[in-house]
Design brief:
ABC transporter transmembrane region fold, Rossmann fold, 2 domains, 6-stranded mixed sheet, 4-stranded antiparallel sheet, EC 3.6.3.-, cell membrane
Length: 585
Amino acid sequence: MFVHKKNKNYFHDKKLLLRIFGSVKTYWLIMCFAIALMICGAATQPALALIMKPLLDNNFSSNYNYKLSIPLILVMLAIIRSICNFLSDYLFALISNNILFNIRTDMYRKLLGSPDLYYLNIDTGKLLNKFTIDANNITNSFADVITTLIRESIIAIALLGVLFYISWLLTLIVIIILPFMFVITRFFIKKIRAISKDILNMNSELTRLVSSSIKGQRVIKLFNGYDIEKERFDFVNKSLKHFSMKAALADSALSPLVHFCIVLTLSIIIAVFLSKPSNMMLTIGDFGVFIAALAQIPDPIRKLTNAFGKLQKVLVSADSVFSLIDAEEEDDSDSIIMNYSAKGNIDFLNVKFKFSENDNPIIDNISFHIKAGEAVALVGRSGSGKTTLINMLSRFIIPDSGKILLDGFDINKMTLKALRANISFVGQDLILFNDTIISNICYGLYNISIKGVEEALKAVNLLDFVNSLPNGLYTKVGEDAVLLSSGQRQRLLIARALVKNSPIIVLDEATSSLDNESERYVQDSLEKLIYGRTTLIVAHRLSTVRKVNRIFVVDSGKIVESGSHNDLLSKKGLYSSFYNIQFGE
């Protein structure tokens, strides 16, 4: 059924607002108290105009005590208003910061539970902005919007009530002008909404660009990429400035236009009153109070129009944040095996997989069996499907068809936690956290003794190095472990796998980035790691797979050869050609 785009946007915005308000439900009691305080504070504004009426009606010859009480009343009203506004603002800040905490918690938990493919497709800059700019916009700006809408609406309604009380006829003029103000406000709100999306996208691009420049600063310097990066940054920076100025223009134009409508209304009312004052049935005091109340209306109206403009930015940010919170999680719904200690028998049965953007399958009907304790290598050209295969074992990637069995059990029937507890991974991406050496080795593990950690470090030839550091095991490795060499990082990862002591080891190009000396140390450590464990190795360096039990040669998503190193060399096939290319034989 066809749905008009405006109606679709309206319902989408309404849904976003309801979700934001849904976050407030937990704090409804605090919210009600804050609103009550705002009402008390807002009620003081029209009172300022009303207390002057008796003075004007009597030409300032009212009761002497009443005249003396006016300054005291003004001070009391100011104190009441200040206290009410302070308390209501504080309570709204309390609510907004609690909501921000909850939203970021939900976002981070969803991020950790997102499928592997989500990380491959997401823009890092946009993802970081969701946690910083967008989440802040929702809570902080939304709190400002709500307090402004409630407080200024109450003030505007109270002032209109005073106007009706004094003269309903003159107030009709105000009401006639209101639709014009609404049309102007709606036009600019739509503009601000569109520009806010452009600003959000450019902020994401700025975050991504700066992050990329920090990581690639050596490449930029070595290849003289200063001008290239400056040009990229200037484009993003200028675009951000352009969109920000457009937003400022729309914001700046809205308030004066609304203010002009109000002044025009005021001018018409004064003209009508002065033309036929006798028909208005108003005293001087009535007219003075009417004008005083009307003169106060521009301020709440201006703040309300600004709030509606800010609300558009909130909705854009809410759309971004909730897109992460609503993202698909790793599916664990059919899992029935909660705990399992695997022996290590692995079966791939007619497994197929194709990335959505590809026409051809990257894994095409592959089947093989690995016995417990057996070491198997996957070799082949880049893009042949090796890494995709090993990622399926941990359920980072789900096959389109076929099954993967662990000790005869379908891995989809195991919870992700139970499955992954049986698998250790050492890859070419040396992921170590900005924490201590011991925390990195024991990451995700509990009840690991210091002795166990030291034994693992000794096994990877790092214990002497760690003991030589000023803080030993409690030395921080720095961001991206910059304080360690590549070989040391790799051996720390192997130590982590040793401490985990899982029955299955997955090695993905574990020595690809190392020099020959470092590779020798790491290879020795790897041999200790894989001893007695089921091991899957992805490698381009064929020197690292000579001793494995079997080698699978993968090409175009299929296993085209299998056997031991010597068997495959004797076949003079694809493996033999790879070997001859690497070793010049």
